[in-house]
Fold this sequence. Notes:
Elements: H1 2-32, E1 37-48, E2 65-76, E3 79-83, E4 97-98, E5 104-107, H2 112-117, E6 128-130, E7 149-153, H3 154-160, H4 163-168, H5 170-174, E8 182-185, E9 189-190, E10 197-201, E11 210-216, E12 220-224, H6 232-237, H7 247-264, E13 267-269, H8 274-279, H9 283-286
Parallel strand pairs: 3-6, 6-7, 7-8, 12-13
Antiparallel strand pairs: 1-2, 1-5, 2-3, 4-5, 9-10, 10-11, 11-12
Amino acid sequence: xxxxxxxxxxxxxxxxxxxxxxxxxxxxxxxxxxxxxxxxxxxxxxxxxxxxxxxxxxxxxxxxxxxxxxxxxxxxxxxxxxxxxxxxxxxxxxxxxxxxxxxxxxxxxxxxxxxxxxxxxxxxxxxxxxxxxxxxxxxxxxxxxxxxxxxxxxxxxxxxxxxxxxxxxxxxxxxxxxxxxxxxxxxxxxxxxxxxxxxxxxxxxxxxxxxxxxxxxxxxxxxxxxxxxxxxxxxxxxxxxxxxxxxxxxxxxxxxxxxxxxxxxxxxxxxxxxxxxxxxxxxxxxxx
Length: 288
């Protein structure tokens, strides 16, 4: 009789463990089903003629590389967020432009308005705009979104609107000067207050640089890196471009980013890496 009860206990325990495991998996699946979609768009192309700029040493001496320049729309049941804004739209329909120092040749094929049409949206449908940072290749059509709320780290806003920037590089502020609905944030920010679309403060590339964490129906936990990393090699070897605002803060952000990515088991996409841009489903694919 004792053996019989012992066997029943073992079977019941095993069944309970199985049930708990199933429930945990079900909860995880349910959590991932957020109703959120990510739309990836082409904000232009950056031909880096002097790749040595992207390391503190001579690792990339004499090398060049073509970068993608994506921007994104995140569609959430509570609203739409645009992440980054590509290269300046004045490039559309023009020959590629090479910067005076010869370091970059940039081009852009299509406008934000035309690309939003592919998902049945207009500029008025964008509720929030967040730029990973305010460099010219991430703020290109920002002024077109003057009715959206700009979510910006206070340190980044102070940097781009400062007198020093107005003297050294006035175009940085000019690219965002029409944005009047401004919400300054300090640190991480949960856009829709449900943990599914979270701006993560990762300073160093600029004073208020940030990355974006998403929980997507199609892709699960996802991280868009902004310019924390430009190249796979830079992520692997923790290489920092020579033009970063603060090297030590960049390295600290890299460490925090990797810990967070591991914690969330997130897929990581480097925004300037063409291979990652090509992996992301484009607008027509989402509409099939």
